[in-house]
Amino acid sequence: MNHSQLAEIKATEKFLLFRFQGELYGTVLNAVREVVPFQTPRAVPNTKKNFLGIVNLRGEIVSVIDLRLWFTDEKQNARRSTSRALVVVESSAGVVGVAVDQIEGVCQLDKNEIESPTGMPGEIAAGGMVGIGKFRQGLATLLDLNVLCGALVLAPESRERLAG
Amino acid sequence: MGLFAYFLMRQSFSSRQALAREDIKSKAVLASQAISAVFRERYMDVQAFAANAVFVGQNKEAMTQSLNNYVENYKSYDAILFVDAEGKFVASNSKTFDGRPAEQKNLEGRAFADTPWFQRAVNGQYLEDKAKGLTGSVVEDIQVDPLSSALLGSTQYGMSFSRAVVLPDGKILGVVTARTSLRFIETELRGVYELFQQVGLKSGQAMLINREGWLVAEVSGETVTERSELKRNPEKVLRWNLATQQGQMAAVEAVAGRAGSAVEIDRVGRVERIWGYNPLRDSRFLDQLGWSVVVSTVSDEMLADMNLQRRWFFFGFSALLIAFSLFGLGAARVISREFMEYSLRIKDECSRLSELGDGLNRIVGKASNTNTDSQAVMSGFSSAVKSIYAQTEECEKTLSESVRRSRELKEKATVSEHSVQRVGVEMTLARTSAEQLSGFEKEISELNNKFSALSEFIFKAQLAGTNAQIEASRAGSNGKGIASLGQDLEVISEQADAIFREVSEGMGKVQNRLVTLTGSIRRSVTDSENLMIEARSSLGQFPTEFSQIAESLEAVQEALVAREEALRSVFESMLHAEGSGARANSMYGELKRGLHELHEQTDRVDELVQDMAATIKGQRVRHRGRKQTSSFSDAASVFMRGGSDVSPDRARADAVDRLAQKMRPRLVVKSEESEPEVNDIGVGESSSRRVG
């Protein structure tokens, strides 16, 4: 994420807010295809730890990833998910379901209420972070899930299978 | 008679001794008077010498001649000196009283100014007693005279008389001093000594002592030689103190100024002497000198005639006593022989008495055995009674224990009943609570199912609202209606979620009540379990208590059996005691017969003793009456009656005492002319009248 991404945001933009491990996150509503109740994914061998598996969403295979490893690097808890919903995103890597703990809802926010992540480490900014939004529920980390999901490193065979 | 004669003899001896003492005392007085007389002469002699005009003439030869004449004529002086007024020797006698030459040269050239006699004579300090007419002379008491010793060449004892030679104008020309020998004293003492010799008292002696008790002159058998010459003992003169050294009481009394006589042991000769002493206190002697005359002679020698009479008297008196003693001895032998015969007879009778006593002892032994049996029976009876008491006490203890345990059992049963009732109540409550709990569980189960569905429904509605807004956002302005629908769905889902939360809180309360109820049920169940355990414990003790009660009752039964046996033993003991009483009665009869025989034997001994006493007395005897003489019989009769106020042991003791008194027989003397009279023979009588 960079300043160009923030510049693409309209003056007034709607964000989908969700909680993951107690923290409040948000993503541009247009980047989300839908939210569905969490389904227990089926594990796929030879994948990364944050790849929980795949689910069948109305006949469509959706990959499910876990943001926990991405945020906290807690490898030992990567497979243990308490999520209750999947935020389905159509990314460059395909349709991906992001497991979250709770859906807070849809909120509208002015652009001037979004703080740029200037001064933060570059890796974070490059990891799909848009900025910090000031919502009535509190500060929320705004994420670009397309970028985030596209940056997922998948095993070649898995990528091919997903592509196929 | 003998005592009277002895008394008369003693009186006579005392009178004779008193006369002898007076005789000795008179001799002391006589010697004192003679010495006083010659002393006065010597006292006056020196004054006469001093008046001689020869001393005025200053002619030494004439003086010497005059002094020789004095010495020769008076025989009493050893030396007579004349010294001038300055004390220088002038003249002295040149011969002794018996005509021997004197060593006049020993005195020539000597000065006597410092001598006491010279100074006193010059100063007129005389030893005098004007009341007695003795005045004008200086006197020195008897001593070792240095002037006489120097003149005669040997130690001389004597006294001095000095007088100043005074001229008519009062000028002192010189001093005349006359040194006497002891001869003028010894001559007078010898006169007394010769008086003793004239009456045959060879032990007589006469002594003169000065005021301190020292011996001055002595005339005795020791000092008078066989040729009637008098010699002095230099170891005694002025070296032998009769009063302080010898402690002779006659000398002590004389020094104290008392005259008298005494019979006293001579402290030197260790023989009894009769002493006469008299201090010189008459008108011709100076009391200041304090001389005393002591005269004595051996007592046996002076009282020889009286001692001879006394010896004859004691000889006759002793012969008389021996004669009486021989007579008494013969009489005693005769009486003793008869006494021996009677003693043998009494011995025989006492032997019989001893046999009777042995018989009585055997009877008493049997009675003692019977008494021992009775004691054994009574002991058995006592032990049986004690056994009955012990069994009864044991039975009472057992019954008390049974009652106590029954009461405890009843209390435990009551507690168990209450516990069971409480268990029933608690179980009912628990059953009701369980039923309520089961209803709650069903309801909660249903609500949970509904809540699950509702929660799913609300979650799906929320997601649907979110998706609607997503779709509306994609649709842009065309999707506003969907967006509002999604917002409504979201609002509805939020309201449903709020309701869901309230219901969830209500469910929490219900769950809390359910937890409380469950706790109460658990407590009730726990109490019920405890009560059940207690009730089970109480009920479990019932068999043990019942078994103990049964054992107690068995013990009571055994105690009753033992008491029955003890009663049987008491019955047997009483039968045995009855047999012992019969045997005791039999022993009492035998004892009564034995005492009767003892009584008769005692009477025989009594008659024998009286007969013996009469034989010794040599007179006829008769009894004063059996009742008065047979005290032992009285005691025995009291004992045989089983006296109400005297115990058998006391009666026997009294009988023995009275038998002892019977050995001192009370005799009734029957004379030919008078009525019978009682004559008690006591212990203090003469041995010839003693019979026991």
Describe the structure.
- The complex is a heterodimer of chains A (about 160) and B (about 700).
- By secondary structure, chain A is of the alpha+beta class.
- About 5% of the residues of chain A have low confidence.
- Chain A has one domain: OB fold (Dihydrolipoamide Acetyltransferase, E2P), CATH 2.40.50.180.
- With about 700 residues, chain B is α+β, with helices and mostly antiparallel strands.
- In chain B, strand 6 and strand 7 form a beta hairpin.
- The radius of gyration of chain B is 75 Å and the shape is elongated.
- At the A-B interface, strand 3 and strand 8 of A face helix 8 of B.
Helix run count of chain B: 12
**Could you describe the largest sheet of chain A, including whether it forms a barrel?**
6 strands, mixed
Radius of gyration of chain B: 75 Å
Strand order of the largest sheet of chain A: 8-1-2-11-10-9
Largest sheet of chain B: 5 strands, antiparallel
Order of helices and strands of chain B: HHEEHEHEEHEEHEEEHHHHHHEE
Mean pLDDT of chain A: 77
- Structural category of chain A: alpha+beta
User: Could you report the average pLDDT of chain B, rounded to the nearest whole number?
Assistant: 80
Query: In the CATH classification, which architecture of chain A applies?
Result: Beta Barrel
How would you classify the quaternary structure?
Answer: heterodimer
- Tell me the β content of chain B: 5-15%
Count of distinct strands of chain B: 12
CATH fold-level topology of chain A: OB fold (Dihydrolipoamide Acetyltransferase, E2P)
Biggest β-sheet: strands ordered side by side in the sheet of chain B: 2-1-5-4-3
Number of strands of chain A: 11
By helix and strand content of chain B, what is the structural category?
A: alpha+beta
The succession of helices and strands of chain A, N to C, reads: HEEEEEHEEEEHEEHH
Domain count of chain A, please report it: 1
